[in-house]
Specification:
This protein is α/β, with parallel strands linked by helices. The protein contains nine helices and twelve strands.
Length: about 300
């Protein structure tokens, strides 16, 4: 082989090495920008879409694929912090609702707080609720029920809506924020969703535990990833939820969307209490130890 041929061969070898090097570099760049987790001493929290890093080595993980959409209830309005924490396309931020921006809902709630008829207008009046709370009027139609209230009911304190246990603005705003997430899921025909409040802190092995359970295809309606509890019954890798408290990390199946929404929009119970009520009648489970905690 002459010198020219040898030089060409070496040049080809060098080009191949450079090509492989560039491929590896591109792979590494995609890998680190997509999956690297930054942990600092000041904020030693793991991005909830990743398992994490061990011994200073980057561990590539999959994005959550168990749910059609992941909703984040943004309670503290610190959106910059939130976007830095969750840089994922499969999430949707739900800003905390202020009921004062919806006069109709505000008047309904204020009536339920006080049973003061000054808050009831024709727009607020609810026929089904009025008949349910006053069974003797069951033969009246909608127009007749409204006329009865105007002429008789309000003077004799006939109940339009039952009294509420929601006694502060924070609680009613949180309830409405969670319902906004459910409304969006209903509109988009999602099969299952995960709802997290923005103080959720998700453990490193969450993805493995979720897969382990969900791949068993067991039926569930509500799946608590975290919550306080006083009574649990062990099933498989989960516990049957009976008295779990907490709204910061839970998944919902589509068959429960409208039921939970209707119960919540009665404005009788706090949202936390609504989730507890559901546990008595539906397939509700809790991960214990919790795979999500709250700050």
């Amino acid at each position: 082989m002459n010198n020219i041929s040898k030089n060409k061969q070496k040049l080809n070898e060098i080009n191949q090495i450079l090509k492989r090097s560039m491929q590896m570099k591109n792979c590494e760049m995609n890998y680190t920008t997509s999956f690297q987790i930054k942990e600092t001493k000041e904020n030693n929290k793991i991005d909830p879409y990743f398992i994490g890093s061990l011994n200073n080595k980057i561990i590539k993980t999959n994005k959550i694929k168990h749910f059609d959409k992941i909703y984040i209830i943004n309670k503290n309005n610190n959106l910059d912090y939130f976007y830095n924490k969750f840089n994922i396309n499969n999430i949707k931020i739900i800003k905390k609702v202020n009921i004062k921006n919806n006069q109709k809902l505000l008047n309904k709630w204020l009536y339920q707080l006080s049973h003061d008829n000054k808050y009831i207008s024709k727009e607020i009046f609810n026929y089904k609720s009025y008949i349910l709370n006053n069974p003797k009027l069951k033969n009246l139609n909608i127009a007749q029920a409204w006329n009865h209230y105007i002429n008789i009911g309000r003077n004799k304190n006939y109940i339009v809506f039952k009294k509420t246990q929601i006694i502060d603005y924070e609680s009613i705003n949180i309830l409405l924020s969670h319902i906004n997430a459910i409304n969006d899921a209903i509109s988009n025909n999602y099969k299952s969703i995960l709802i997290l409040e923005d103080n959720a802190n998700i453990k490193k092995n969450y993805d493995y535990l979720l897969k382990e359970y969900l791949n068993k295809n067991e039926k569930w309606d509500i799946l608590f990833l975290g919550g306080n509890h006083s009574k649990l019954i062990k099933t498989n890798i989960l516990y049957k939820a009976l008295k779990v408290k907490g709204t910061y990390a839970y998944a919902l199946n589509s068959n429960i969307f409208k039921i939970l929404k209707e119960l919540s929009m009665n404005f009788i119970f706090t949202y936390d209490k609504c989730l507890q009520k559901m546990q008595k009648f539906y397939n509700c489970y809790l991960f214990y130890p919790n795979i999500v905690t709250n700050d």
